[in-house]
Write a structure and sequence with these properties.
InterPro entries: CheY-like_superfamily, Cyclic_di-GMP/3'3'-cGAMP_PDE, DUF3369, HD/PDEase_dom, HD_GYP_dom, Sig_transdc_resp-reg_receiver. It is built from 17 helices and eleven strands. With 532 residues, the chain is an alpha/beta fold.
Length: 532
């Protein structure tokens, strides 16, 4: 590219300065994220003069960070590395006569970057006529180098940054609202408070595109044996607090969080940014996170909307847990009713619940039936298992409590408990939409005496036709019954019990369920003590 001869004007953008030209833009403030400006020109003097002209300039208390590239190819690589470049001052003629124009096309098309502002600067306007360039290329301004005095360069820079800021704000709002809707949907799926708290930290990190350092605390007003300020979730550099569970090692942060609770509002004192979140049931939460730079107005507005969605999601979690607790209480009451007359079974149903959950977890680890063992199934199968013998409420005492073996007629009456239990629970399950403890309990009650080879009762179902929940409880029920005393038998040893169960894998029992139980027994991972 040929050199341009510029008039020796005192306002010329190629300033005569005491500097030797090696000085770069002021170091970015530690407190404010700088605006990145990319200078693309094959002449070193142009870079030096531009840096001198823009030295010390700031916009909205944010300084400039000037980057340099000496060819279109080098500029493209920088743009791939820095996604937040606000302005490009771009020469046209560099390694080729249209290198700058080619770069414009690659920025808009290949990088799909429509927000960076591009000011085309040329010393040879005849090779890139202004009207043609403005019409055919997505640039934001066109200047000849003779036009760009210091003042005009300043004006062009600030105007470009203002336009970039507006576009970024619009895009942040669009993306932020989309992320809020997505994150709220994700939070609605979480069913424990600590899981919910961890989810909130992850979503804030994604919303602001920041690191994962964060803390979520809850305020316990009534205490009830819990600390007034309880940490529910930590991430990143704060993970060391998970063990202690308090903020004694972070006194300043603890003070800001207490201020948030007292004033019931979010406080932004970078780097101590803390959100305040309240819910309808009067629970209060504080969320601290660590953005690299102070948040701008758009980000704060998005966080306000996010806090409202978090509050609604927490209220949903609270109502879900209240409903679930009520359902569990109903299930326990029904199981107690079934056990009330069968005093020798003792804590049989509670052991069945714990072992059912343990076997299901082990089967997930062994990747058995992944299509059947989803989150909903895993959440409910243990509690539903305690309803397996609910049908015994209809079994006469002289049969249920008989100390010896049952005769064929008595056996037929006893076997009716499977069908009766399934029918009782199925009728109740129709009142609840979707899967529930009652619907799963109905499967278990009706199927836990079916055999894998089809020789069980009451319907002689075979293999995969037997619900998975019932196949698990079938093994658990026999395992516990053999290890414990019954009116008709003494307890068996663990060795004899496992020999019996392993011997019926594939005939009476699902082999995968037996395998999971065997692993728990061999590795001494049974959830409770079985046998006397």
């Amino acid at each position: 590219m040929s050199s341009d001869t510029l008039p020796p004007d005192e306002d010329n953008w190629l300033l005569d300065d005491d500097s030797d030209g090696s000085e770069v833009a002021a170091r970015p403030s530690e407190a404010r994220k700088p605006w990145k400006v990319l200078i693309v020109d094959d002449e070193k003097d142009v870079h030096t003069a531009t840096r001198i002209a823009l030295r010390g300039i700031s916009y909205k208390e944010r300084p400039l960070e000037l980057l340099s590239a000496y060819s279109g190819a080098e500029a493209f690589q920088l743009l791939k590395q820095h996604h937040d470049i606000a302005l490009i001052m771009l020469d046209v003629v560099m390694e080729s006569e249209d290198a700058g124009l080619r770069l414009v096309h690659r920025i808009r098309e290949e990088l799909d970057n429509g927000v960076v502002r591009i000011v085309l600067r040329t010393g040879q306007p005849g090779q890139a006529p202004e009207q043609e360039v403005i019409l055919n290329y997505d640039i934001n301004d066109y200047k000849t180098k003779t036009e760009l005095t210091t003042q005009k360069l300043f004006t062009t820079t600030i105007a470009s940054l203002r336009a970039y800021e507006n576009l970024v704000s619009l895009e942040k709002n669009r993306q932020g609202l989309a992320k809020i809707l997505e994150s709220a949907s994700d939070l609605y799926q979480l069913h424990s408070l600590r899981e919910f708290a961890s989810g909130v930290l992850r979503q804030i990190s994604a919303l602001l595109d920041i690191g994962t350092d964060g803390i979520l605390c809850v305020r316990n007003e009534s205490h009830s044996g819990r600390p007034e300020l309880e940490i529910l979730a930590v991430s990143g550099s704060y993970e060391y607090l998970a063990e202690s569970g308090d903020l004694s090692s972070e006194p300043h942060l603890a003070s800001v969080i207490q201020q948030v609770f007292q004033e019931k509002r979010s406080i932004y004192q970078h780097p101590y940014d803390v959100l305040y979140i309240s819910s309808r049931n009067r629970r209060e939460f504080a969320v601290h996170f660590m953005p690299q730079w102070p948040l701008d107005a758009v980000e704060r507005d998005l966080l306000d909307v996010f806090c409202q969605r978090i509050s609604a999601a927490y209220d949903n979690l609270y109502l879900y847990n209240q409903l679930r607790s009520a359902q569990e209480a109903t299930v326990v009451a029904l199981a107690d009713l079934a056990e009330f007359r069968d005093t020798d079974t003792g804590d049989h149903v509670l052991r069945v619940q714990k072992l059912t959950d343990a076997i299901a977890d082990e089967m997930v680890r062994q990747n058995r039936y992944p299509d059947l063992m989803g989150r909903e199934f895993m959440d409910m199968v243990g509690m539903a298992s305690i309803l397996h013998d609910i049908g015994k409420v209809a079994t006469p005492d002289h049969i249920l409590l008989k100390p010896g073996k049952l005769d064929p007629e008595e056996r037929a009456i006893m076997e009716q408990h499977a069908t009766i239990g399934a029918q009782i629970l199925a009728r109740s399950a129709k009142l609840v939409e979707g899967a529930s403890y009652l619907s799963l309990g109905s499967e278990i009650a009706g199927g836990h005496h079916e055999h894998f080879d089809g020789n069980g009762y009451p319907s002689k179902l075979k293999g995969q036709d037997i619900p998975l929940s019932a196949r698990i409880v079938a093994v658990v029920d026999v395992f516990d019954a053999l290890l414990n005393k019954r009116p008709y038998k003494e307890p068996w040893s663990m060795e004899d019990t496992m020999k019996y169960i392993n011997g019926r894998a594939g005939s009476q029992f699902d082999p995968h369920v037996v395998s999971a139980l065997s692993r728990l027994v061999d590795e001494k991972r049974l959830p409770v003590k079985f046998g006397e």
